[in-house]
Amino acid sequence: MLADARAITRTSTLMRHLRFGIGQKIYAIIALGLLGFFCISAFQMREFGLGLKNQKQEELKHLTAIAVGMVQEEYEAAQKGTVTVEDAQERAIARVAGARYDARWVFLDQ
């Protein structure tokens, strides 16, 4: 029984030392709020970066498909015999080299 009383006394002494005043509680709430804000901001920045990376990868896939389509058209023209293989190769190189982006980031075939 005496041991129980000592344990209770130690616990209550510890609780008195850990007791916060109103000012300390307010600062703790502000600190937790800021910590949460920074954690959420870091998560959002990471997700935003991943979204931009995925968007750029998809854009490059589409642009690659357009360039392959240009080369495919010249290949088909050579297969039909309307142009020689050498001319088709030169035209394909010129078309892909001449393709560019305009101000709106649209791939143009010139």
- Beta-strand fraction estimate: under 5%
What average pLDDT do the residues reach?
Answer: 83
Shape: rod-shaped
Number of strands: 2
Helix- and strand-based class?
A: mainly alpha
Helix count, per DSSP?
Answer: 3
State the order of secondary-structure elements, H for helix, E for strand. HHHEE
| Fraction of residues in H or I helices | over 70%
Q: Give a short account of the largest sheet.
A: 2 strands, antiparallel
Description:
This protein has 110 residues and is mainly α. It has one domain (2-108). It is built from 3 helices and 2 strands. It has a two-stranded antiparallel ribbon with strand order 1-2. Helix 2 packs antiparallel against helix 3.
Write a concise synopsis of the structure shown.
The protein has 110 residues and is mainly alpha-helical. The chain has helices at residues 2-18, 22-80, 85-98; strands spanning 100-101, 107-108.
What key phrases describe this protein's structure?
single chain; 110 residues; mainly alpha; two-stranded antiparallel ribbon; 3 helices; 82% helix; rod-shaped
Map the helices and strands.
Elements: H1 2-18, H2 22-80, H3 85-98, E1 100-101, E2 107-108
Antiparallel strand pairs: 1-2
Helix pairs in contact: 2-3
